[in-house]
Amino acid sequence: MELQENIKRVQENIEKYAEMAGSDAKKIKLLAVSKTVDADCVQAAYDAGLRDFAENRVQEFLKKKEALPKDIGWNIIGQLQTNKVKYIINNGVDLIHSLDRYDLALELQKECEKKDTSISVLVQVNIAKEDSKAGIYEEDVHAFFDKIASLDRLKIKGLMTIAPYTTDTMYIRKVFGKAKKLYDVLKPKQDGFEWLSMGMSNDYGEAILEGANMLRVGSAIFGERIYK
Ligand SMILES: *Cc1c(COP(=O)(O)O)cnc(C)c1O
Fold first, then answer.
1. Is the C-beta atom of 104 inside 6 A of ligand 1?
2. Reduced 3-state DSSP string for the chain
3. How do residues 53-77 score in pLDDT, each as one tens digit?
4. pTM for the predicted model, two decimal places
5. Least buried of 50, 87, 138, 215, by fewest C-beta within 10 Å?
6. Ligand 1 within 6 A of 124 CB?
7. How far is the CA of 83 from the centre of ligand 1 (A)?
């Protein structure tokens, strides 16, 4: 089956690049980005051994979560509207990858207080300063961390970034390398800081070489997405 072959290929590549980077492939977490993929297909990926999935639309996440095994670790990627926060707090989300602005941090804090819980998040950084992408600029990251420090319901678990879509692999590595540097500076100051989420289907090799320990891979697993 194609899906199984895809998963195997991705896992072999992760091992290959981890070896090149001198890091341990077992410490690199692979998230299967299942946005637009139907629940049966996600189930097939689960049956092939994957346990961690990522969605970018709250409604789609909620539907799939209902239909699929309870031991799946769900990740929210992509821009999150504040009015969607109430649906995902205390509702089976392992990690939000896209904390990119203060008003979202405030809303997450507020909703967690209301439900007497907490939420694990990654701060999204926009290293290449692309207008089309969300995320905090490198030079603003420290101030942003200071600003959210008092929001005690947010567990800041690391950083997430997206590289520009280009075939220039040296540039991609430069962007990922900058994110890794930032991660290394922040890690000793932040309790529970653990994840550097970077690398997608086209650039997860470069991400591993630059120190990613969480990959978000969609089309290399499920095939090209067909948008409706
Ligand atoms: C869609 C998406 C991915 C996966 O993209 P692929 O190129 O299909 O691997 C990863 N991260 C984010 C934030 C995405 O929106």
1. no
2. CHHHHHHHHHHHHHHHHHHHHCCCHHHCEEEEECCCCCHHHHHHHHHCCCCEEEECCHHHHHHHHHHCCCCCEEEECCCCCHHHHHHHCCCCEEEEEEECCHHHHHHHHHHHHHCCCCEEEEEEECCCCCCCCCCECHHHHHHHHHHHCCCCCEEEEEEEECCCCCCCHHHHHHHHHHHHHHHHHHHHHCCCCCEEECCCCCCHHHHHHCCCCEEEECHHHHCCCCCC
3. 999 999 999 999 999 999 999 999 9
4. 0.97
5. 87
6. no
7. 23
